Amino acid sequence: MAMIFLPPAMSACLSHLGPPLKGNLTSFLYSSAMAYLGDAIDAHLAAATGDDAELFRELRAAFVESARRQLDLLGRSRCDGNWEMAAMRLKSLAATFHAEELIVLADQALNSAPGEPAVLRRIAAALDSIEPTG
């Protein structure tokens, strides 16, 4: 069994799983019905919520709702200040959940003119890949 060494905070989150899973993140992710390998957001939420499926769904929905709110603010921004504030909030939210793709897209927004349609479409597509609308 390949062992993955975890930072102390992650190790503490997994300590309730016991010795067989504590150091093996792959086994932990496969053992959780909530996590999908390759999806950083779900993996971090699963580590934080353990077996509490309701809490997992609640936190995931809150993440997506907050990210969509920032996307809406970006779309309505007409000045540099509002655009930058919404982009920085989106980047902070993405960093909290280790959503690397969304961090990159928020950086692209920060380096773009307010209302840049290509950036808005890419962010919307990324959010749709996490949780489709409709």
Description:
This protein has 134 residues and is an all-alpha fold. The protein folds into two domains: 8-50, no CATH class; 55-130. Helix content is 70%, strand content 0%. The protein has eight helices and no strands. Helix 5 (53-76) runs antiparallel to helix 8 (117-130) and helix 7 (100-110) runs antiparallel to helix 8. 22% of the residues are buried. Mean pLDDT is 75; it is low at 1-38.
Observed structural traits:
134 residues, mainly alpha, 2 domains, 8 helices
Level of helix content?
Answer: over 70%
Shape: elongated
Order of helices and strands: HHHHHHHH
Q: How much strand content do the residues show?
A: under 5%
Mean of residue pLDDT?
75
Q: Which regions are unreliable across 5 or more consecutive residues at pLDDT < 50?
A: 1-38
Q: Give the helix tally.
A: 8
Number of domains: 2
Oligomer: single chain
Content-based structural category: mainly alpha
What is the CA-atom radius of gyration, in angstroms? 17 Å
Number of strands: 0
N→C terminal distance: 42 Å
The major β-sheet equals:
none
